[in-house]
Amino acid sequence: MTNDTPSHSKRPLKQRPVDHKGARLLLEYTGMAAKYLVVLGISVWAGFKADQLISFDFPLFVWLLPFLCVVGLVIKAVLDTSK
Question: Where are the domains positioned within the chain?
Answer without folding.
Answer: 42-83
